[in-house]
Design goal:
Layout: E1 2-7, H1 16-30, E2 34-42, H2 51-65, E3 80-86, E4 97-100, H3 103-110, E5 118-123, H4 132-139, E6 144-147, H5 150-158, E7 163-165, E8 187-191, H6 200-213, E9 218-223, E10 236-239, H7 243-252, E11 255-258, H8 267-274, E12 278-282, E13 297-300, H9 305-317, H10 319-333, H11 338-348
Parallel strand pairs: 1-2, 1-4, 2-3, 4-5, 5-6, 6-7, 8-9, 8-11, 9-10, 11-12, 12-13
Length: about 350
Protein backbone atom coordinates (compact mmCIF):
# COMPACT_ATOMS: atom_id res chain seq x y z
CA UNK A 1 0.00 0.00 0.00
CA UNK A 2 1.25 3.49 -0.90
CA UNK A 3 1.08 6.01 1.94
CA UNK A 4 1.96 9.72 1.78
CA UNK A 5 2.63 11.81 4.88
CA UNK A 6 2.57 15.58 4.38
CA UNK A 7 4.51 17.58 6.97
CA UNK A 8 4.48 21.40 7.27
CA UNK A 9 8.03 22.03 6.09
CA UNK A 10 11.13 20.46 7.59
CA UNK A 11 13.02 21.25 10.77
CA UNK A 12 16.78 21.50 11.31
CA UNK A 13 16.31 20.50 14.93
CA UNK A 14 14.41 17.72 16.70
CA UNK A 15 10.65 18.30 16.83
CA UNK A 16 8.43 15.82 18.67
CA UNK A 17 5.62 15.78 16.11
CA UNK A 18 8.01 15.19 13.22
CA UNK A 19 9.84 12.50 15.17
CA UNK A 20 6.61 10.52 15.67
CA UNK A 21 5.82 10.66 11.95
CA UNK A 22 9.35 9.54 11.07
CA UNK A 23 9.12 6.61 13.50
CA UNK A 24 5.83 5.54 11.95
CA UNK A 25 7.27 5.84 8.46
CA UNK A 26 10.10 3.49 9.44
CA UNK A 27 7.63 1.10 11.06
CA UNK A 28 5.35 1.04 8.04
CA UNK A 29 8.09 0.32 5.50
CA UNK A 30 9.40 -2.42 7.79
CA UNK A 31 5.93 -3.94 7.54
CA UNK A 32 5.78 -3.94 3.77
CA UNK A 33 4.23 -0.54 3.05
CA UNK A 34 5.45 1.98 0.47
CA UNK A 35 5.90 5.30 2.31
CA UNK A 36 6.65 8.80 1.09
CA UNK A 37 7.19 11.88 3.28
CA UNK A 38 6.68 15.29 1.72
CA UNK A 39 8.03 18.29 3.60
CA UNK A 40 5.70 20.96 2.21
CA UNK A 41 7.12 24.32 3.20
CA UNK A 42 4.79 26.79 1.47
CA UNK A 43 1.23 25.64 0.94
CA UNK A 44 -1.22 27.22 -1.55
CA UNK A 45 -3.78 27.47 1.27
CA UNK A 46 -1.41 29.82 3.14
CA UNK A 47 -0.32 33.39 2.26
CA UNK A 48 2.43 33.58 -0.36
CA UNK A 49 5.85 33.52 1.29
CA UNK A 50 7.86 36.70 1.56
CA UNK A 51 11.05 36.82 -0.47
CA UNK A 52 13.21 36.62 2.66
CA UNK A 53 11.37 33.52 3.88
CA UNK A 54 11.74 31.78 0.54
CA UNK A 55 15.42 32.74 0.40
CA UNK A 56 15.99 31.26 3.87
CA UNK A 57 14.28 28.06 2.77
CA UNK A 58 16.46 27.79 -0.36
CA UNK A 59 19.58 28.35 1.75
CA UNK A 60 18.58 25.54 4.15
CA UNK A 61 17.89 23.28 1.18
CA UNK A 62 21.33 23.93 -0.27
CA UNK A 63 23.02 23.39 3.10
CA UNK A 64 21.10 20.12 3.45
CA UNK A 65 22.16 19.01 -0.03
CA UNK A 66 25.79 19.81 0.76
CA UNK A 67 25.51 17.82 4.01
CA UNK A 68 26.39 20.93 6.04
CA UNK A 69 23.03 20.56 7.76
CA UNK A 70 22.75 16.93 8.83
CA UNK A 71 19.41 15.18 9.41
CA UNK A 72 18.71 14.67 13.12
CA UNK A 73 16.64 11.53 12.53
CA UNK A 74 17.73 8.42 10.65
CA UNK A 75 14.98 7.38 8.27
CA UNK A 76 14.87 3.93 6.73
CA UNK A 77 16.36 4.07 3.25
CA UNK A 78 13.11 2.73 1.83
CA UNK A 79 11.24 5.87 2.92
CA UNK A 80 11.12 8.34 0.05
CA UNK A 81 11.60 11.95 1.17
CA UNK A 82 10.72 15.01 -0.88
CA UNK A 83 11.52 18.54 0.32
CA UNK A 84 9.25 20.93 -1.53
CA UNK A 85 9.19 24.71 -1.35
CA UNK A 86 6.07 26.00 -3.08
CA UNK A 87 3.93 22.89 -3.29
CA UNK A 88 0.89 22.44 -5.51
CA UNK A 89 -1.87 19.86 -5.75
CA UNK A 90 -0.24 18.32 -8.83
CA UNK A 91 2.94 17.65 -6.84
CA UNK A 92 1.22 15.01 -4.70
CA UNK A 93 1.60 11.51 -6.17
CA UNK A 94 -1.02 8.84 -6.64
CA UNK A 95 -1.34 6.77 -3.44
CA UNK A 96 -3.74 4.70 -1.36
CA UNK A 97 -3.58 6.90 1.75
CA UNK A 98 -2.59 10.55 2.21
CA UNK A 99 -2.09 11.87 5.73
CA UNK A 100 -2.14 15.48 6.90
CA UNK A 101 -0.02 16.00 10.02
CA UNK A 102 -0.97 19.55 11.06
CA UNK A 103 -3.86 21.95 10.59
CA UNK A 104 -2.16 23.72 7.66
CA UNK A 105 -1.61 20.48 5.80
CA UNK A 106 -5.19 19.38 6.58
CA UNK A 107 -6.52 22.33 4.58
CA UNK A 108 -4.27 21.32 1.70
CA UNK A 109 -5.03 17.58 1.85
CA UNK A 110 -8.75 18.36 1.76
CA UNK A 111 -8.26 19.83 -1.72
CA UNK A 112 -6.40 16.84 -3.18
CA UNK A 113 -8.02 14.66 -5.85
CA UNK A 114 -9.13 11.09 -5.12
CA UNK A 115 -6.08 9.61 -6.87
CA UNK A 116 -3.92 10.82 -3.97
CA UNK A 117 -5.63 8.32 -1.68
CA UNK A 118 -8.10 8.18 1.17
CA UNK A 119 -7.57 11.30 3.26
CA UNK A 120 -6.51 11.24 6.91
CA UNK A 121 -5.77 13.89 9.50
CA UNK A 122 -3.16 12.83 12.08
CA UNK A 123 -3.86 15.19 14.98
CA UNK A 124 -1.07 15.69 17.52
CA UNK A 125 -2.37 18.80 19.28
CA UNK A 126 -5.22 21.29 19.38
CA UNK A 127 -3.23 23.83 17.38
CA UNK A 128 -5.29 26.93 18.12
CA UNK A 129 -2.22 29.20 17.89
CA UNK A 130 -2.97 29.02 14.16
CA UNK A 131 -6.22 30.90 14.87
CA UNK A 132 -8.95 29.00 16.71
CA UNK A 133 -11.77 29.56 14.22
CA UNK A 134 -9.68 28.39 11.28
CA UNK A 135 -8.17 25.45 13.15
CA UNK A 136 -11.59 24.33 14.38
CA UNK A 137 -12.77 24.16 10.76
CA UNK A 138 -10.03 21.64 9.98
CA UNK A 139 -11.43 19.29 12.64
CA UNK A 140 -14.71 19.25 10.66
CA UNK A 141 -13.15 18.59 7.26
CA UNK A 142 -14.12 15.29 5.58
CA UNK A 143 -10.85 13.62 6.56
CA UNK A 144 -10.58 10.51 8.73
CA UNK A 145 -9.23 11.62 12.11
CA UNK A 146 -6.47 9.90 14.07
CA UNK A 147 -5.54 11.42 17.44
CA UNK A 148 -2.60 10.68 19.74
CA UNK A 149 -4.24 11.36 23.11
CA UNK A 150 -7.56 10.89 24.88
CA UNK A 151 -8.08 14.61 25.44
CA UNK A 152 -7.83 15.17 21.68
CA UNK A 153 -10.37 12.40 21.08
CA UNK A 154 -12.68 14.22 23.49
CA UNK A 155 -12.31 17.41 21.44
CA UNK A 156 -13.17 15.50 18.27
CA UNK A 157 -16.27 14.11 19.99
CA UNK A 158 -17.22 17.66 20.96
CA UNK A 159 -17.11 18.59 17.29
CA UNK A 160 -19.31 15.60 16.47
CA UNK A 161 -16.39 13.88 14.74
CA UNK A 162 -15.21 10.29 15.04
CA UNK A 163 -11.52 9.85 15.81
CA UNK A 164 -9.31 6.78 16.12
CA UNK A 165 -7.02 6.92 19.16
CA UNK A 166 -3.42 5.88 18.50
CA UNK A 167 -1.40 6.72 21.64
CA UNK A 168 2.20 7.78 21.27
CA UNK A 169 5.04 5.54 22.35
CA UNK A 170 8.51 5.53 23.88
CA UNK A 171 11.63 4.61 21.95
CA UNK A 172 12.54 1.85 24.38
CA UNK A 173 15.70 1.02 22.45
CA UNK A 174 16.97 4.47 23.41
CA UNK A 175 15.24 5.26 26.70
CA UNK A 176 15.37 2.73 29.53
CA UNK A 177 16.56 2.38 33.12
CA UNK A 178 20.33 2.04 33.43
CA UNK A 179 20.70 3.33 37.01
CA UNK A 180 18.77 2.08 39.99
CA UNK A 181 15.89 4.31 41.01
CA UNK A 182 16.28 4.03 44.77
CA UNK A 183 19.75 5.59 45.37
CA UNK A 184 19.48 8.47 42.91
CA UNK A 185 20.84 11.80 44.08
CA UNK A 186 18.90 15.05 44.17
CA UNK A 187 18.93 15.76 40.45
CA UNK A 188 16.13 17.39 38.43
CA UNK A 189 16.03 17.64 34.65
CA UNK A 190 13.81 19.71 32.36
CA UNK A 191 13.37 20.55 28.68
CA UNK A 192 13.90 24.23 27.85
CA UNK A 193 12.10 25.90 24.97
CA UNK A 194 11.75 29.49 23.81
CA UNK A 195 8.11 28.80 22.98
CA UNK A 196 5.95 30.26 25.74
CA UNK A 197 3.52 27.33 25.65
CA UNK A 198 6.25 25.03 26.99
CA UNK A 199 6.20 26.89 30.32
CA UNK A 200 9.98 27.12 30.73
CA UNK A 201 9.79 30.36 32.70
CA UNK A 202 7.45 28.69 35.23
CA UNK A 203 9.81 25.74 35.39
CA UNK A 204 12.78 28.00 36.09
CA UNK A 205 10.86 29.80 38.87
CA UNK A 206 10.02 26.46 40.50
CA UNK A 207 13.62 25.28 40.18
CA UNK A 208 14.99 28.49 41.71
CA UNK A 209 12.70 27.99 44.71
CA UNK A 210 13.88 24.39 44.98
CA UNK A 211 17.53 25.44 44.79
CA UNK A 212 17.00 27.90 47.64
CA UNK A 213 15.70 25.13 49.89
CA UNK A 214 18.08 22.42 48.63
CA UNK A 215 21.45 24.13 47.91
CA UNK A 216 23.04 20.84 46.78
CA UNK A 217 20.30 20.24 44.22
CA UNK A 218 21.70 19.49 40.76
CA UNK A 219 19.71 20.90 37.84
CA UNK A 220 20.16 19.63 34.26
CA UNK A 221 18.42 21.49 31.45
CA UNK A 222 18.42 20.52 27.77
CA UNK A 223 16.96 21.87 24.55
CA UNK A 224 17.60 22.83 20.94
CA UNK A 225 17.86 26.57 21.60
CA UNK A 226 20.86 28.58 22.73
CA UNK A 227 21.64 28.56 26.45
CA UNK A 228 19.01 30.73 28.17
CA UNK A 229 20.20 33.81 30.05
CA UNK A 230 17.85 33.18 32.97
CA UNK A 231 19.07 29.64 33.64
CA UNK A 232 18.85 28.82 37.37
CA UNK A 233 22.14 29.35 39.19
CA UNK A 234 24.39 26.31 38.98
CA UNK A 235 22.29 24.58 36.33
CA UNK A 236 23.96 22.70 33.48
CA UNK A 237 22.63 23.23 29.96
CA UNK A 238 22.92 20.65 27.17
CA UNK A 239 22.18 21.92 23.69
CA UNK A 240 21.00 19.35 21.14
CA UNK A 241 21.93 16.31 23.23
CA UNK A 242 22.05 12.95 21.47
CA UNK A 243 19.65 10.19 22.46
CA UNK A 244 22.50 8.56 24.38
CA UNK A 245 23.13 11.80 26.30
CA UNK A 246 19.41 12.21 26.96
CA UNK A 247 19.21 8.69 28.33
CA UNK A 248 22.09 9.53 30.68
CA UNK A 249 20.41 12.77 31.79
CA UNK A 250 17.11 11.02 32.49
CA UNK A 251 18.86 8.24 34.39
CA UNK A 252 20.76 10.74 36.52
CA UNK A 253 17.47 12.41 37.40
CA UNK A 254 15.42 11.68 40.48
CA UNK A 255 12.73 14.03 39.11
CA UNK A 256 11.68 15.22 35.68
CA UNK A 257 9.96 18.60 35.61
CA UNK A 258 7.39 19.16 32.87
CA UNK A 259 5.91 22.70 33.20
CA UNK A 260 4.09 23.03 29.84
CA UNK A 261 0.94 25.11 29.53
CA UNK A 262 -0.46 22.81 26.84
CA UNK A 263 0.79 19.59 25.26
CA UNK A 264 -0.58 17.19 22.69
CA UNK A 265 1.42 14.37 24.25
CA UNK A 266 4.29 14.75 26.73
CA UNK A 267 6.97 12.96 24.74
CA UNK A 268 9.95 13.91 26.92
CA UNK A 269 7.85 13.17 30.02
CA UNK A 270 7.35 9.56 28.91
CA UNK A 271 11.02 9.24 27.98
CA UNK A 272 12.08 10.41 31.45
CA UNK A 273 9.54 8.14 33.14
CA UNK A 274 10.83 5.16 31.15
CA UNK A 275 14.28 5.96 32.55
CA UNK A 276 13.07 5.99 36.16
CA UNK A 277 12.60 9.71 36.85
CA UNK A 278 9.55 10.69 38.93
CA UNK A 279 7.30 12.99 36.89
CA UNK A 280 6.39 16.41 38.28
CA UNK A 281 4.06 17.98 35.71
CA UNK A 282 1.40 20.57 35.05
CA UNK A 283 -2.13 19.58 34.10
CA UNK A 284 -1.40 20.33 30.45
CA UNK A 285 -3.57 17.67 28.76
CA UNK A 286 -0.66 15.85 27.22
CA UNK A 287 0.10 13.79 30.34
CA UNK A 288 -3.45 12.57 30.97
CA UNK A 289 -2.90 9.14 29.42
CA UNK A 290 0.07 8.24 31.61
CA UNK A 291 0.48 10.83 34.38
CA UNK A 292 -1.91 9.74 37.14
CA UNK A 293 -1.75 12.22 40.01
CA UNK A 294 -0.38 10.63 43.16
CA UNK A 295 0.41 7.34 41.41
CA UNK A 296 2.69 7.89 38.40
CA UNK A 297 3.11 11.67 38.72
CA UNK A 298 2.43 14.73 40.82
CA UNK A 299 0.24 17.12 38.84
CA UNK A 300 0.02 20.91 39.38
CA UNK A 301 -2.24 23.52 37.79
CA UNK A 302 -0.71 25.20 34.74
CA UNK A 303 1.08 28.54 35.27
CA UNK A 304 1.62 27.81 38.96
CA UNK A 305 5.37 27.57 39.71
CA UNK A 306 4.77 27.56 43.47
CA UNK A 307 2.65 24.42 43.15
CA UNK A 308 5.36 22.85 40.99
CA UNK A 309 7.92 23.70 43.67
CA UNK A 310 5.71 22.22 46.39
CA UNK A 311 5.55 18.94 44.46
CA UNK A 312 9.31 18.99 43.86
CA UNK A 313 9.72 19.53 47.61
CA UNK A 314 7.46 16.55 48.34
CA UNK A 315 9.50 14.28 46.09
CA UNK A 316 12.86 15.45 47.40
CA UNK A 317 11.82 15.17 51.05
CA UNK A 318 9.95 11.86 50.73
CA UNK A 319 12.14 9.22 49.14
CA UNK A 320 9.48 6.52 49.39
CA UNK A 321 6.98 8.70 47.49
CA UNK A 322 9.54 9.44 44.76
CA UNK A 323 10.41 5.76 44.36
CA UNK A 324 6.75 4.73 44.27
CA UNK A 325 5.90 7.29 41.57
CA UNK A 326 9.03 6.55 39.56
CA UNK A 327 8.43 2.79 39.54
CA UNK A 328 4.79 3.24 38.54
CA UNK A 329 5.96 5.49 35.73
CA UNK A 330 8.30 2.78 34.43
CA UNK A 331 5.48 0.24 34.62
CA UNK A 332 3.09 2.45 32.62
CA UNK A 333 5.59 3.53 29.97
CA UNK A 334 6.76 -0.06 29.45
CA UNK A 335 3.41 -0.60 27.71
CA UNK A 336 3.85 2.39 25.40
CA UNK A 337 5.68 0.58 22.60
CA UNK A 338 6.15 1.37 18.92
CA UNK A 339 4.87 -2.10 18.09
CA UNK A 340 1.56 -1.50 19.90
CA UNK A 341 1.13 2.00 18.47
CA UNK A 342 2.24 0.90 15.00
CA UNK A 343 -0.38 -1.84 14.91
CA UNK A 344 -3.01 0.64 16.07
CA UNK A 345 -2.01 3.05 13.30
CA UNK A 346 -2.25 0.31 10.69
CA UNK A 347 -5.73 -0.58 11.94
CA UNK A 348 -6.70 3.10 11.80
CA UNK A 349 -5.45 3.23 8.20
CA UNK A 350 -7.42 0.05 7.48
CA UNK A 351 -4.26 -1.85 6.59
CA UNK A 352 -4.63 -4.63 9.17
Amino acid sequence: MKITFILPGFSRFPVGGFKIVYEYANYLVAHGQDVQIIHAMFLPTQPSPKLIDFSKYKLKQNLLRLNIIKPWFKLDGRVQVINKGKIRVNDIPKADRVIATAWETAEFVDKLPEKCGIKYYFIQHYEIWGGKKRVDKTWKLPLKKIVIATWLKDIATGFGEKAYLVPNFVEHKNFYVTKKIEPRNQVISMLYSEHEVKGSSDGFKALKLAKEKYPDLKIEIFGVFEKPKDLPVGATYYRNPSRRQLNEIYNESAIYLFPSLSEGWGLTATEAMACGAALCSTDNGGVNDFGINGKSALISPVSDPVSLFNHIDMLLSDKHLRIKIAKKGVEITDKLTLENSGKSLMRALDIL
